[in-house]
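Let's do one together. I've listed all components of the complex below, 782 residues spread over two lines.
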Amino acid sequence: MYHNTDKQEFTITVYTENQVGLLNRIAIIFSRRKINVESLNTSPSEVPGIHRFTIVVEESRDVVLKVVRQIEKQVEVLKAYFNTNDEIVWQELALYKVLSEEITEKVKVERLLREFGARAVAIRKDFIVFETTGHREETNKLMKALEPYGLVEFVRSARVAIIKESAGFHEKLKDFEEREPGEEVIENEYLGKREAVFTM
Amino acid sequence: METTIAKTATAEKVKEAIAPKTLTGSQAVLEACIAEGVDTIFGYPGGAIMPIYDALYDYKEKLEHILVRHEQGGIHAGQGYARSSGRVGVVFATSGPGATNLVTGLADAMIDSTPLVCITGQVFAHLLGTDAFQETDVINITMPVTKWNYQITDAEEIPSILAKAFYLARSGRPGPVLIDISKNAQLQQFNYQGYTACNHIRSYRPKPVIRKEYIDEAVALINNAKKPLVIFGQGVILGKAEKEFKKFIEKSGMPAAWTILGLSALPTDHPQNVGMVGMHGNYGPNVLTNECDVLIAIGMRFDDRVTGRLDKYAKQAKIIHLDIDPSEIDKNVKATVGVWGDCKETLPLLTLGIEQKDRSEWLAVFADYSKQEYEQCIQPEMYPSTEDMTMAEVIRNVNEITQGNAIMVTDVGQHQMVTCRYAKFNDTRSNVTSGGLGTMGFGLPAAIGAKFGAQNRTVIAVIGDGGFQMTLQELGTIMQTGIDVKIMILNNQFLGMVRQWQDLFNDKRYSFVDIASPNYVMLAKSYGIEGAKVEHRKDLVNAVKTMLAHKGSYLLEVMVGKENNVFPMVPQGCSVSEIRLK
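Okay, and this is what the predicted structure of the assembly comes out as:
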C-alpha cells in the first residue's frame, strides 16, 4: 500500500526548546517510518531561547500530517507546522569551488557567474569559491553549468524557509518565552480545521 | 549568661532551618521519591548506581526497595505496580547491561501508556563516550521507547529534573520516563533547596481545554444514532473515569465493547458490556462494528489487532474518537468528530447532552450473536466434553471462587486471550497484561508488582509454559519478599499461540513450538513456594481452592489440551466481520 504518486515536497517547521538530544528525538520519528529527510536545518528563531528546525521531506500529505503530530507530541516541542512549497519562501545556499585559471581564461565562465548572480567569497591564486543562494533548481543549474569548467567542489546547505502566512505566531512565541502559557495558547482548533492549522 | 546561651542555640536552630541543607545527589534522588509519595522501588544495584544504593541504606524505613532478580523483572514489576495502583512505578538499575535490560519494559510501558520513572546509573561524566566499563548510551537507546528521557551530570539538576520526570510520567497520556544520572552527580554535594513538584512545562500540553463544538457535534451524532456502539480502551482507566464512563453509557443505553486494556473498566456482568473487540474478541462486537451507524471510541487507539483489515473497518459508521493524545486522532481510523481531551472531562459533557434512550432492540442483536458464540465457542470451552482440560474451564473455576474480585495478571499468548475473554471482573484495575507489545515474560514480575501496588487484593498470575520460562528467576523475588502471588501455569507443552497460527496458516508445520518444561512444582519448592500439578479434571476444583486458600505464594500447574485453539478469531488481514467461530 505504497502510494508513490501522491508524494510531494513538504517543509516542516518545528519550534523547540534548546536541548541536547532533541535533534535525535525528532529524527527518529522519520527514520521509524523509513522516511528520508531531504534536508534539515536547525537555527535560532526570532525569540531568544527558542530554536527552529526546518525539515524537508518528500512524502504524502497524510503521512506528513501524522509525522508532524508525533513531532509536536515531543515534550520539548512547542509547535510544528508543515507547508507545501507555494506556502513558503525559501532559500538554499550553495558554494562552488572552481580553479582560478579556468575562470581567468574563459570569458564564458564569467558570464555564467554573472548570469546566476554568483558572488566570489574567496579568491586565491589556485582557486575561487563562489556562492549563490536560491532554490535547488537554480543552484543545481549553476553546478551543471560549471561542471565542464573544472568544478572542483560543490556543497549546498539545508533549506531555510519562512512561512508566508505566519503573522501572529511571533507573538505566541514570545508568550511561550515570557510567561506561562494561558488558556488561549492551549489550542485544539485543528481538530476541526485538520491540517489547516499546521499550515497556519 | 544562661539566656545568652539559649539565644545562641535558638539562633543556630533558626539558621539551620533557613540555610539550605547540603545533600548528595543520591540523597536528593531519594528525597524526590519521598516527596512524590513513592513507597516501593523495584531495582537492582550495580557499580554506577552504588551511591544511590548507599544512600538508600539510610532511607530503608521510608522507601521499600524490592530486590528483583533481573532488571527486566524490575521494570515489569514497576509496570504491574503502576497498573494495579494507578501510581507511578519506580525502577532503579545500573548503567550498561542494567540499563539495556530495561528496554523491553520501557517499550512495553510506552505502547501501553504505563507511568514509570526509571533511574539508571551512568559512568562518571568525564568518562562519557570513552567506552568506559559498563558505559552504554542509554539515552539514545531508549529514546524511541520513552515519553521523555534526560541525562543528569550535575546534582543541582536532580530535584527539578525528577520533578519533571514524575510529572511527565503521570500527566496527559502517561508513559515511561528514564533519567540517567552519572556517578559524579550522585556523589556530588550541593545546596539542596528543597523539592518543588512540577505542574507545568511550557512546551508540553498534557491535555487541552475542551472545545464545546466537538462535544455538541458528538452529542448530535449520538442522539441521532440508531445503532451506536462504544469501544473503550485503557484511556478510561488511565483517566480514572470509570464512573463517568458508566454514567455515559447508562444514560444513552449504548452497547459497550472493550479492548484488551480497557478490560475491567466496566464490570463483566454490566448489561451493556457486550465483550471484547479484536482478533480474539467476541462475535457480536466484531461483526457489529461493521453494522453500527455511530462508533464511539473512547481512550483507545485502533490497534491493528482491534481493527483487522483497516479498509474494511466500520466504513459505514460515523466515528467519534475521544482521546487525550491528538496524534491518535485520525492516525489509523479517520474520525468524523475528534474529541480531544481527558475523558474524565469530556465524558460528563457528553452525558449532559445526550438523551436518555432505551436501546434494548439493538442490544438484543448483540445478545443474539452472543448466544451463537456461546453455543459454538464458549460452552464447549468452558464445559468441555473432551478428556483434556481447557484453559477456559480453568478460568471458569477461578471465577467461581474469586467471584471476579481478584486481579488477573497474564503473560502473552493463548492463555492471555482465554483469560481476558473468560475471567470475570467487578473492579477496575484488575486486568494487568501486556497488550500492545505482547511481551512474553511479563506475567510473573508484573504480578509481583501488582501485588505490591494493591496489597489487600488477591493477585492471580495466569502464565503459559513458554512465557513463564522467560522470567521465572523472579520466583527468587517472591521467595525473598514473601509476597503473596498465586501463579497458575497453563501448560499445553507448546508455544501455543504460534502453534495455533502454524496450525491454521502454515499447514500444521509446527516449527520450533514444541517446548519442554522443567518440574515447575519442584522448581517452586526450591524457592520455598508451595505448589501442585493438576492433570485430571476431577482434581481441578480442589486444586484451585487450595491455591487460593493458601497463605502466601502458590504455584499451580495445570496440564491443558495440547492443541486447543483460541476462537473466535479474526485472521490477520481479514475484516472484523470475517471473524471465524472455528
